[in-house]
Sequence to fold (220 residues):
Amino acid sequence: MKKQVYLYYRFERFWHWAQAILILFLGFTGFEIHGSLDIFGFEAAVKWHNIAAWAFIVLIVFAIFWHLTTNAWKQYLPTAKNLKAQMEFYVTGIFRNTPHPTKKTILSKLNPLQRLVYLGLKVLVIPVMVVSGLFYMFYRYPQSGDIETINISGLENIALVHTLGAFLLVVFVIVHLYLITTGHTVTSNLKAMITGYEEIEEEDADEEAEEEVRKHDIPV
Ligand code: HEM
Fold:
């Protein structure tokens, strides 16, 4: 018997999709600035990259607040339990139709590999992109006569770090798109992030955890 479980809250879904759109947009405009694409024209790409960057920063502030106030940050605590099994699943098990080694529950939505990768994005890659991006934005050439906000002797290093992070995000997006299709059905993960609900085998659903969440009236 299958059961519909409410896994992703309204803000969580909004944050996920807004972040996805902004990262894609920052990627396209950023790689136009880098010289790899020609879509908006260089000047427009710079303008839109800056606007999207500020929108991304505002979104990050709200997301941090939400993660702290709902305790959702605990979903990203790394665990070694099932880590090897999860890796083996992606390398071989998935092609032999073996069952998913990690069961999704409302209190533990992420498998151990997702926990590691998402934590890495949140505490390393995204902060590095924001900080290097802001350095890039507020850098002033001392000789240009502008007010010297931050004078970094090597803008090149900043650009290099920012571009490296951008490549990592591109790799992440590609892998993420593939992994979306590896749920119970090809579209089940995608549907869950749109509607909030996922169909889970009744014996896998964690009734106690659901009850716990309901009791504490966690916001939807
Ligand atoms: C809040 C976050 C971000 C800020 C503040 C930011 C800011 C900037 C700035 C100011 C530039 C230089 C524009 C110019 O040359 O005038 C830039 C370039 C660039 N950005 Fe971002 N950015 C952010 C996030 C991202 C993200 C998420 C990506 C990729 C997915 C990205 C990819 C790039 C790339 C590829 C370049 C060109 C680098 C180069 O060739 O030197 N940025 N960014």
User: Anything to note?
Assistant: The CA atoms of residues 178 and 186 lie 10 Å apart. Strands lie at 2-6, 197-201.
